[in-house]
Specification:
By secondary structure, the chain is α/β, with parallel strands linked by helices. It has 15 helices and twelve strands. The longest helix has 49 residues. The radius of gyration is 25 Å and the shape is globular. Its EC number is 2.4.1.-. Pathway: Protein modification; protein glycosylation. It comes from Scophthalmus maximus (Turbot).
């Protein structure tokens, strides 16, 4: 009897300690969990039940004179004749930082090679890099120079060699990404308004150019308008945690949900949409520094809605497999592996292995195994496995 009571007390002690441990963990994590859950519930309720985004339009509308301060920057590097050809299928702007010359060279040698696109794919695509001024350029300390050449002079030499840098006189930083977005739409409006499509992308993205060109040619032949595709975020709440890179204070954005927008890693719009976004930037407050959210605000103001495309990646890399390459459009997070991925994704054997009834059945099974997983990949949707 004594041993039995002793065993019971020991079990009770273990249960008590376990309960205390669980409560401690919950208390530590509760605030973050509570904020995350509550913010998403509020956001989705606002997005799908209330949906008064017209109030957002009103709150961001400012006089043109005030809006001009977000675009009235001097060009330091420019190429007004870049789009001199009459038939330009796509103007592709790559958002880059001044120091990322290695990434720019990798893009020039792979998916962003204009000569390859013209000779192998038979279309004209213009690839331009958008950037601001490096922080070191304003101070120009001795350690920022290479062989006595300042940072800006390095960019000038790079541009003389390649002729594809577009730079304005604002500080190149995360908090000025919206200025870089406005630069792109204003440059297209004044320099390349006849391009049938416009794309913006990060400099660590991979674009399967043969697939993208084929897709856009098909869309162009159909005469599409109001066209905006990418990885769509719907009902996304602003992040109020000051520890986050994407922190947005209430004073900057007072609403509980953002308008629908596409991930800034890469998206495509048609010419008419690009012109509407340009017009929107002339009267909207661009102080919010998350550029893809500002794009959503502009689109909402002019009545344009994004369309989700399953082969546009979010913030993650897509799996490495020939069955993925067959329909891939974009994948995010590629720097060192971009050359290997380009060779593998554009290899002629990809189409051979994935064609025919057996190839399609095989790839459906492979994509189900790669994409339909219980945890979040932030790449392609599971439904991409069945397309």
């Amino acid at each position: 009897m004594f041993l039995k009571m002793r065993r019971i007390r020991r079990c009770q002690c273990v249960q008590l300690m376990t309960t205390c441990l669980v409560l401690s963990v919950v208390m530590v994590c509760w605030e973050q969990l509570d904020n995350n859950v509550v913010s998403h519930v509020k956001s989705y309720s606002y997005r799908y039940l209330v949906n008064h985004f017209i109030n957002i339009n009103k709150s961001f509308t400012i006089p043109r004179e005030q809006a001009r301060r977000f675009s009235n920057f001097r060009y330091l590097l420019d190429h007004p004749d870049k789009c001199i050809e009459k038939d330009v299928l796509l103007l592709l702007f790559v958002k880059t930082s001044p120091e990322n010359i290695g990434r720019r060279n990798a893009i020039r040698s792979t998916w962003g090679n204009e000569t390859y696109i013209r000779n192998r794919l038979g279309v004209t695509v213009k690839v331009v890099f958008a950037l601001g001024v490096a922080r070191t350029t304003r101070d120009e300390p001795s350690w920022s120079k290479r062989n006595g050449v300042g940072f800006q002079e390095q960019l000038i030499r790079e541009d003389r060699r390649h002729g594809d840098l577009v730079q304005q006189d604002f500080l190149d930083s995360f908090h000025n990404l919206t200025l870089k977005l406005i630069l792109q739409f204003h440059w297209m409006h004044s320099r390349c308004a006849h391009a049938r499509f416009f794309m913006t992308a990060d400099d660590d993205i991979f674009v399967h150019m043969p697939n993208l060109v084929s897709y856009l040619q098909d869309m162009s032949s159909r005469g599409v308008t109001q066209f905006w595709i990418g990885r769509v975020h719907r009902g996304a709440p602003p992040i109020r945690s000051k520890d986050s890179k994407y922190y947005v204070p209430f004073e900057m954005y007072q609403w509980v949900s953002y308008p629908d927008y596409t991930a800034g890693a890469g998206y495509v719009v048609s010419r008419d949409v690009a012109d509407k976004i340009y017009q929107a930037t002339l009267t909207l407050n661009a102080s919010i520094y998350i550029d893809d959210v500002f794009m959503g605000i502009c689109a909402n103001a002019v009545g344009v809605t994004p369309q989700d495309h399953v082969f546009f990646s979010g913030e993650g890399k897509t799996p490495y497999h020939q069955c993925i390459y067959d329909q891939m459009l974009t994948s995010h997070g590629h720097v060192e592996d971009i050359y290997d991925l380009w060779r593998a994704a554009t290899h002629p054997q990809v189409k051979w292995w994935t064609s025919g009834l057996v190839g399609r059945l095989y790839c459906t099974a492979v994509k189900m195994a790669l994409l339909c997983r219980p945890y979040y990949l932030n790449t392609y949707h599971c439904k991409a496995a069945f397309l």
